[in-house]
Amino acid sequence: MLPKPNLQEENGFNIDWEGILLKYRYQILLLLVGVILIGLGVFLFKNKDSLYSSSVEVLESSTDVEGNNSGEVVIEVSGAVETPGVYKLSVNARVEDALIAAGGISADADRDWMEKTLNRAAKILDGQKIYIPRVNEQINGSSANSVAGYQSVSSVGESSITKMVNVNTASQKELESLWGIGPVTAQNIIEQRPYSSVEELLNKKILKTNVYETNKDKLSIY
User: How far is 219 from 222, CA to CA, in rounded Å?
Assistant: First the structure.
């Protein structure tokens, strides 16, 4: 039997595959890498929802919790207002917003005291109380139940203080009589009057934390 003829030889040419692969090996390698990357990209694109769904849920949950914790504050407004009570307001609300929520001040409110002492632009804090005194009302400093202005609920039930220092009216000498307060700090307190709460001395960094904690039971805003 005669051997089967070589078609490539009969047609007058012979393909050197080994030589071609050797010559174009880099181009072929780049082509293969490109195909692999394209395939990986298509796979990730089609499956991106399933890959990231769990992280998105965690982020949404975190946002919801943060909003519940910091989105609003609860305060009490009492005294000479139309509708005394406990109100929920925006975390960025001011004293003026609290008065509006309570229906505004009543006809017997001590407007002279408000003009001199109450800072309507002060930012309110969670759990605080705003008390508006009536005309000729006698105010004492025994506790937050009789506080005029803007005070923390944490002061409710504290024992009476024999002598309170009114940070809105005290002289420099009276302020310097307090522990840790010297001439510079006393002058700074006077320059930044009026205050709608004792806490403003700490929030505005007028007093250091240790000085504020030592003297807070001796301070008032009325």
Answer: 9
According to the CATH classification, is domain 69-160 in 3.10.20?
A: yes
CA-CA distance, 86 to 126, in Å (whole number)? Answer: 11
Q: What is the pLDDT of residue 61?
A: 39
Tokens 């009302």 -> residue: 137
Q: Model's pTM, two decimal places?
A: 0.40
CATH fold for domain 162-222: DNA polymerase; domain 1 (1.10.150)
List Cβ neighbours of 58 (8 Å cut-off, separation of 6 or more).
Answer: none
From-to residues of CATH 1.10.150.320 in the chain:
162-222
CA of residue 120 relative to chain centroid, distance: 21
Enumerate residues 6+ apart whose C-beta is below 8 A from 64. Answer: none
- List the beta bridge partners of residue 130: 77, 150
Task: Supply φ then ψ for residue 175, to 5 degrees.
Answer: -65, -40
Q: How far apart are CA 157 and CA 220, in angstroms?
A: 15
List the structure tokens of 87: 């109100």
Reported as a single tens digit per residue, the pLDDT across 50-106 is 555 444 344 343 334 344 455 889 999 988 899 999 999 998 899 999 999 999 988
